[in-house]
Structures are given as C-alpha cells and as structure tokens.
C-alpha cells in the first residue's frame, strides 16, 4: 500500500516541476531574392528526367519540415 502512495506522491511532485524545452532544430538557411531568382533561371535549363529534380523536391520537403519545427 505504501508503495502505491509513494509512487502517487512522486508523480504529483514531478508534475509540479517547470519544464523548459529547447528546440534542437537547426535554423534553415535564408537565401536572398536575387539568389532565388538566379536559381530559378538555372533550374529552367535542367532536363525533366534529371535526378537533380527529385533531390530538390526532397530538399524542399525537408526545409518545410524544418520550418514547421521552428513554429512549434
């Protein structure tokens, strides 16, 4: 019986502590508008069947997840 009471008290005491969460998400790199426009022009010259296209799609998804991580 004392075991259950002790566990209950421990749970109550632990729930009273203040927790501080530190984000372990790295900051996404910020690119200038000029840099983004230059990249867009370069991407227009890549063939559609290039493997680079799939890599960039995956990279975009990862950047979106990283941005979402910082919004939480």
TrEMBL record:
PROSITE patterns: PROKAR_LIPOPROTEIN. It comes from the Bacteria. This is Lipoprotein.
């Amino acid at each position: 019986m004392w075991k259950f009471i002790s566990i209950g008290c421990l749970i109550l005491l632990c729930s009273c502590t203040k927790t501080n969460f530190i984000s372990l998400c790295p900051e996404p790199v910020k690119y200038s508008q000029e840099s983004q426009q230059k990249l867009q022009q370069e991407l227009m010259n890549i063939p559609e069947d290039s493997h680079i296209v799939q890599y960039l799609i995956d990279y975009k998804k990862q950047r979106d997840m990283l941005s979402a991580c910082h919004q939480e």
